[in-house]
Amino acid sequence: MPHYLLFSGHMIDQNGRDPARFPDSKATAGGEAIYKTLQEAAAGKTDIKGIAAAASGGDILFHEACIKLSIPSEIYLGIPIEAFVKTSVAPAGPEWIGRYRKLIVALPVHILHPDATESAPSTIWEEANNWMLETALSSGGDHLTLIVLWDGNKGETGGTAHMVQVANDHRATVEIIDTHTL
């Protein structure tokens, strides 16, 4: 039975975001924190699998750390690859687009709504989070570690706070990387 390492976290802030949650200047520290947390979460486990979306920031850093640690990971997108890059990667700039494209060809990709466009309703993000949670909980909460890169603030419905609550409800392990301390 696999142990899932599910990731949720902030995208790179767009210029002028106030208050800042995860500015690009914290990306290196965020990547190092994700790597260390993954390394600790995977210790002693033999059948592990990573799951995350692929937005700029935390998601991409998670998949890159999984690759470095030889942890198989899979990308779960709510909308198709090209629509997703427009909504969730391109605002962070060309470097993040390049990193996204490398991951898309290197890892398995699952798409929840293959016919959706970048103008899909905002509920699609909540659906995608629930989809990833259901997959990661398929082996039970004791076989799930949720890793979050998060400022601790509750955002819109279906965000990181919701994932933390569901994981806690299932007695999963939750590892929080506080963006304020990076």
Lay out the secondary structure.
Elements: E1 3-9, H1 27-42, E2 48-52, H2 58-68, E3 73-77, H3 81-88, H4 94-106, E4 109-111, H5 123-136, E5 144-150, H6 160-169, E6 173-178
Parallel strand pairs: 1-2, 1-5, 2-3, 3-4, 5-6
Structure, described:
The longest helix is centred in the N-terminal third of the chain and has 16 residues, at about 25-40. The chain has about 180 residues and is an alpha/beta fold. It has a 6-stranded parallel β-sheet, sandwiched between helices. Helix 2 (about 60-70) links the parallel strand 2 (about 50) and strand 3 (about 75). It starts with a strand and ends with a strand. The mean pLDDT is about 95. It has helices spanning about 25-40, 60-70, 80-90, 95-105, 125-135, 160-170; strands at about 5-10, 50, 75, 110, 145-150, 175-180. It has a single domain (about 5-140, about 150-180), classed as Rossmann fold (3-Layer(aba) Sandwich), CATH 3.40.50. The radius of gyration is 15 Å and the shape is globular. About 40% of the residues are buried. Helices cover about 40% and strands about 20% of the residues. It contains 6 helices and 6 strands.
Briefly summarize what is shown.
The chain is an alpha/beta fold. The protein contains 6 helices and 6 strands, in the order E-H-E-H-E-H-H-E-H-E-H-E.
Order of helices and strands: EHEHEHHEHEHE
What do the pLDDT scores average to? 94
The CATH architecture designation is 3-Layer(aba) Sandwich
Unreliable stretches covering 5 or more consecutive residues: none
Total of domains: 1
What is the highest CATH level, the class? Answer: Alpha Beta
Distance N to C terminus: 34 Å
How much of the sequence lies in strands comes to 15-25%
Strand order of the largest sheet: 4-3-2-1-5-6
